[in-house]
Amino acid sequence: MPHRPGPICVIGAGIIGASAAFHLIESGARDVIVIDAGEPLSGTTPAGAGFVARFGADHNRRLGACTIPLQDYGLGFYQRLHESGADLEYASNGNLVLARTPTMLDTLADGILRHPQVAAGTRRLNADSVGELMLGAVNPAAVAGGVYMPEGIQLTTALAQQELLTRLEDAEVQFHWDTPATGVRVVDGTVTGVETSNGTIDASTIVFAAGAWNQTLLESRDRRLPLIPMVATRFVSEPAGLSPLMPTVQCLELHLWLRELRGAFSWGGSFAYRLLSALEQEGLEFGYGRPVSQALLDAQYAYQENVAEVFPALSELSAVETIQGVPVYTVDGGLYVGSVPGIEGLWALAGDSESGITHGPGMGKLVAQLIMDETPFTDPAPFRLDRVNPADYPDEASMVASMAEDRIAEAAQLN
Ligand SMILES: Cc1cc2nc3c(=O)[nH]c(=O)nc-3n(C[C@H](O)[C@H](O)[C@H](O)COP(=O)(O)OP(=O)(O)OC[C@H]3O[C@@H](n4cnc5c(N)ncnc54)[C@H](O)[C@@H]3O)c2cc1C
User: Fold this and answer.
1) DSSP state of 404
2) 286 in contact with ligand 1, CB cutoff 6 A
3) Closest among 186, 185, 371, 5 to 194, alpha carbons compared
4) Which tens digit of pLDDT belongs to each residue from 186-207?
């Protein structure tokens, strides 16, 4: 039984909101409504590269060990979808964190292999083993080695999102597309409905899952979280003859993530990321949907030859697809899943830290369990909205300063 009887309205039908609705239904909620400001698949999710791994089991990342149960849940969730016949372009080839120098290889090995929750089979590789594992995609002479995380998977994000939306339709969830929520109706400190551009929708429980737009929704109730929206870019190259058995790859020294997609490179990195606010100051127009920043596209093209030093086949390949989205970072590197303080019935899933594909299923499951009064599968305390005092971060510059240890810190500091 839901904690509060009445309709539950999820605002935002990206991977995170769709996951919340999916798990609410799975937990027995019957009256679930999903509203979205745009068309299906119009938000950040289809821009996502589709890497999923145990990224929290790495001292070099800021996610924290509390996120590992969510990653494990996500890995299992996508595997189950795949095994049930959903076409997600799913592959389970592991994830390789590449090092170009011996010093970086030691740092990676310390952070991952010495993590107390390191997954079985995680291993350090020398340059030749990297060459073999990458099935010809990497020039071994250009790397020192890497750390292989065998549990990593890859999938096509738009397909995963569409699969969830289809299952929600099958479960007779009510959708309202092209319907921006403008606020929340609150009576005596308790939510009673969602105000939208098309009128008010009654709801006794509301979940904000509006990605880059969560802050605006929170502000409609005078609430704020320290959130840092960035624009990120992904290119899909012309066909490159890559093996479908190749693992996903990250390389800190190249600020890079890269994977195989239908024989081509799907790749990007912080060389083509920038604060949304900085781009807006330069004239970027961004309402709902996905941004298009030519400056970032140019930056990625300009960087391509650096990546081709390690991945020679990428040299001079054009991009047949370019896609941008707005992941949202948090000041402590974590995720937000919990109730909005002071408003009964209002919940938020926010601050995806560019990992909403990985964490969406777990975030959705956790909020559904909290709403439905079930025992949560993991401790919700590290995800609470009130774990950080927003007053400590009066402006974006103070939020960005807190990201000093983050792999995208440099990109965030460009303004
Ligand atoms: C280039 C790139 C690569 C990435 N790679 C990875 C990766 O490999 N692995 C990984 O885990 N993550 C990755 N990410 C991050 C991941 O894509 C995001 O974390 C995730 O898609 C966020 O999902 P979401 O549901 O919060 O947002 P969205 O998909 O943007 O969904 C939010 C929805 O809310 C709707 N909305 C907004 N405002 C309102 C309103 N007022 N009323 C109603 N609806 C509203 C929007 O229309 C939108 O559909 C990547 C992101 C990018 C951009």
Assistant:
1) T
2) no
3) 185
4) 999 999 999 999 999 999 999 9
> Which run of H or of E encompasses 267?
strand 264-269
Nearest to 326 by CA among 278, 371, 364, 372: 278
Bridge partners (DSSP) of residue 145 are 99, 126
DSSP single-letter state for residue 235: E
Instruction: Tell me the average pLDDT across 67-75.
Output: 98
Tokens found for residue 316: 């001079």
Count CB neighbours of 15 within 10 A: 31
Q: What is the pLDDT of residues 159-170, one digit of tens each?
A: 999 999 999 999
What's the CA angle centered on 286, arms 282 and 292, to 5 degrees?
Answer: 75
Q: What is the pTM of this model?
A: 0.98
> Quick check: helix, strand or coil at residue 239?
strand
Is the CB of 47 within 6 Å of ligand 1? yes
What is the number of the ligand 1 atom nearest to the C-alpha of 328? 19
Alpha-carbon span 315 to 311, nearest angstrom: 8
Which tokens is 290 given?
A: 């996905």
- In this structure, how many other beta carbons lie within 10 angstroms of the beta carbon of residue 268? 26
Atom of ligand 1 nearest to the CA of 16: 25
The overall average pLDDT reported for the chain is 97
> In the chain, what is the straight-line distance between the N-terminal and C-terminal CA atoms, in Å?
48
CA distance 45 to 357: 7
Closest-CA residue, ligand 1 atom 4, reads: 48
Structure tokens at 331: 């000041």
Q: Are strands 227-239 and 319-325 parallel, antiparallel or unpaired?
A: antiparallel
Q: Quick one: average pLDDT of 251-274? A: 98
Does the beta carbon of 210 lie inside 6 Å of ligand 1?
Answer: yes
